[in-house]
Amino acid sequence: MSTRRAFITNTGKAMVAGGLVTFAENGDSNMLENKFIHHVYFWLQNEKSKEDRAMLIEGLKKLSKVKTIKTFHIGQPADTKRDVIDSSYAVSWFTIFDNAADQQSYQTDPIHLKFVEEYSHLWSKVVVYDTVDVK
Predict the structure, then answer these.
(1) How far apart are CA 3 and CA 96, in angstroms?
(2) Quick check: 17 and 132 in contact, CB under 8 A?
(3) What gap in Å lies between CA 105 and CA 121, rounded to an integer?
(4) How far is CA 26 from CA 8, 21, 34, 52, in A?
């Protein structure tokens, strides 16, 4: 049975991953309509290693060259403290694809495969949230 804190933490993650975050550009609140959202959270093997963190970020920048990625964001935990916030990860990778087929293509893209091969030794844990629009 989950504790209340774990439930709130996981619900908060699911809300963000579920696309409840609205992005608007030039007043267009439907910018993400019918898009495929892929959000990845990385925990480093060597949690305190600035070098490993920098290397992972370098790899994610290379990964952004995959042609089916429409936009991406590399992030780190914000300095916010509330019970519902999980800031235990080191780096996040947020990408937008036009559709599920483009995201599936990304999974087998040589750039993505090379990223996993060259950088997977850096992380101890990866959590992925893929989301599509609510119908």
Answers:
(1) 33
(2) no
(3) 23
(4) 33, 16, 18, 37
**Count of CB atoms within 10 A of residue 17's CB?**
19
Indicate whether 66 belongs to any domain.
yes
Token pair of 65, please?
Answer: 């060259």
Q: Domains in the chain: how many in total?
A: 1
Secondary structure (H, E, C), the chain: CCCHHHHHHHHHHHHHHCCCCCCCECCECCCCCCCEEEEEEEEECCCCCHHHHHHHHHHHHHHCCCCCEEEEEEECCCCCCCCCCCCCCCEEEEEEECCHHHHHHHHHCHHHHHHHHHHHHHEEEEEEEEECCCC
CATH code (residue 105):
3.30.70.100
Q: Domain residues for 105?
A: 46-135
Predicted confidence band at 34 (pLDDT cuts at 50, 70, 90)?
Answer: confident
Which position has the token pair 């893929």?
130
State the pLDDT at residue 21.
47
